[in-house]
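Morning run. Coffee first, then this:
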Amino acid sequence: MDTALITQAPDRKLAPKKRRLKHMQQASLVWAAEKWPATELFQFFTTADGYLATGHMTGLVNATPFALEYKISLNPHWVITAAHIRSLTNVQQTIGLHHNGQGQWEDADGHLLSRLQGCMDVDISLTPFTNTLPIRRLHWQEGVPQVIDVVYIDVPSFKVEHVRQRYTALRKGVFLYENMTNDFKAELNVDEHGLVIHYPGVYARVFAEVVKD
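And here it is:
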């Protein structure tokens, strides 16, 4: 610091420098399931239109092996524009969804899915990434819950439902997640980017590499 500047202008207050938030540009993560033997390789990319998130999962559920991949396209505000989920063990299990950004969904053939009207997020049952979507999309006030409608995709059955969920920011890096259909709840530990570090009893992050701007 230049002390000469201070002595020449003793009454002038120096404005503190604003700390610029660094945004996630790319990421590679690995989650390990805690309730069943499974792992996921997750990757995140910045695109010309927003972001692209991809995941590859393999493991066993109810003693049945599964392998699947998903791709979720997002606009710069973390609103889903498209979601594709594909089984790598059963070619007939494929889901393609397109979203107009305002709660209206169509399937891969362009047919309107009226039962999903009003949903803004997608929740894929076997990945912790989709918990990040509402965390990043919404604005939070500590202790104030927010109720959301989501497209819930159960895998490996590939059943699609419209469900209601509730999230509450408890404190920095901790969100309470509640499924309002079956009363399931969990406290999620997340990093500065909203990505899950630990989903108690369900997932634990075992690797993370994040590139910031």
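The chain has one domain: 26-212. Good start to the day.
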